[in-house]
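Homework-ish question, so no full write-ups if that breaks the rules, but can someone show me the predicted structure for this set?
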Amino acid sequence: MPLTPNFTASQFSGTPSVITLTDTSTGSDVTIAKRRIYLLQANGTMLVPAGTTTTFIEWPLANTSISLDVLSQDSALSITVQWLTAGNTVVTSKTISFAFTAYNETFYYGLTESQVANSNLSASTNWYQTKLVLRVEIDSANQSITFASDIYSAQAALNRATYISTNQALFF
Amino acid sequence: MLDPQTTVSIAEISQYLWNDAIPKQNVFFNGSIDPRKAQQLYMERKALQYGIDQQLSGLPGTSNYVYALCGSKLQLAIEILGTGTGGGGVIPGGGGNFSVYEYSSNATLGSFTIYFPEAIGKRCVNAFRQGNNIGTILTAGTPTGNQVVWDKTTGALTVAVAFYDNEFVRVVVQQ
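A: Not a homework solution, just the prediction itself:
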């Protein structure tokens, strides 16, 4: 049965700089000898872990999952995984766009935690209006990806959200 | 404490209920409800969902907070979540539908059974057939003479004497 390529990506609140890819492909192809990852950013450049000299990341076939410590803020990425022969001929590939939002979602959760501790915060107009803007930007990023795989619009929304969370003293 | 995932479901329903209530209040009572209520529920429920997904600390407190935000729509939301339908009206003193319904149909020549799909699950109070009198209404077994058998699981009325062509048959049923 030929290889049907597929993979998933995940990110966790405690380690938001790390994204984890998991190969969920089915079938097999005896000609495949290696696997590579390309992380395309909205600015057109490839994201790689520190110290990597190529534009791609090698993903050994023996490992079903790989964790990459690459993010410094929430990012929208178009991720391409290639399955190649020993001679670097691409046998098959799969590209999926993702919005990685753990930095801002965790900050957003923290705002709700603050309200739990001090419910008077929600009476503040600024508090809620800014929190709502933050929610809208995170949702916008997710929808840009879900509806259009548009990493440019998603990144723009995430940048606006990041501005709020990294300048919280100005807003909350 | 409720399971946080259940709180998320209740909050989603409450959000809809508030969203539905706010414009009505604005029309009839000039806006006595906090107009941010539905928005608030959406915002805090999204935080709770993220907390559940990531198994974050403080989940019980957040869950209770969202639960409390549901406010006066809470009871109805719980009822809708439990039954999958609207809460609807309640009949004082009893509940349930005890109304009597009448259904009729025309039988096929030579058949012994006629079906009333609308009457499935109901108790047959009385039956009538144009060509013969009807005696005892059984709920099992094989009818003889003017007896009939009512099977409420299929809504079937079976007679001992075959129907004539296009014979009019009527059943009266109750819940």
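Now go work out the reasoning yourself. Hint: Chain A has two domains: 7-100, 102-171.
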